[in-house]
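Researcher: Go.
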Amino acid sequence: MRTGASTFAEGVDLSLYIIAGISIVFLIGITAVMIWFVFRYNNKRNPKASHIEGNNTIEVVWTVIPTILVMIMFYYGWAGFKPMRNVPDNAMVVKAYAQMWKFSFEYPDGTYSDTLVVPINQPVKLELVSRDVLHSFYVPAFRIKEDMVPGKDNFLWFEATIEGRYDVLCAEYCGQLHSYMLSSVTVVPRQRYDEWLAKAAATGDDHPGLAVMKQNACFTCHSIDGSKLIGPSFKGIYGKTEIVVTDGAEREITIDDEYISRSIKDPNADVVQGYMKGLMISYENTINDQQIADIIEYIKTL
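Model: Structure:
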């Protein structure tokens, strides 16, 4: 019976079983010896302490055997890990983006999605990009996990072998809503994948500003229904008067095009009173001026 849904599962599981098995044997053995010593050399049985000379044979045995076992564990661990860094030439390349607190995926044709969809029995290489802090891309069913470090190029690859939907988790604490940073990978036949990709590429949001905001996980921290999240809600915000903190001093501003643009490029310059500074990163190098204009036009409709 298969316990994993990728070509890596068997090797990773085997190394886990070997390491766990050796550890359990040592745990039981050492505990048993400790208990035996407690009874054999307690005060009643051995009231007078005795000097025990060393034993070269025992010294050699408990040095050589653990060394051999450690090398066995290393071998199976390395055998399971090495293939994870050798990407097949025919692998499909998808960019995986992480930011507080959302995963998003960019396909070779430029299509974006919030969940990952891949063909069965097709090697897939994920180029891992963090847009803010340290994250970790983890698919338990595939036995794959890799850190996503800001400013560092990293990757992982896998080949799914069983159709279905599998959880994608962030395995590195990345802030207040870390536990909500969930996504999924769906494994489908090649024909269904091609149909899904064509449909996803043809389907667009009604407003370009909304598409940009979804792509950059804006709704993780800002609502559009008036509810309070990490940041202020976008509902009815345009033209509203707010008290902001600028360089430690409070001042009153009107939320207009200039303020929204500045908040996207330098979010810590004017922080709305009652909200925490430092949670939002700068999008100056991520979102261009036209996209900012689209966002402003969309916010005006809320």
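Model: The CA atoms of residues 4 and 10 lie 7 Å apart.
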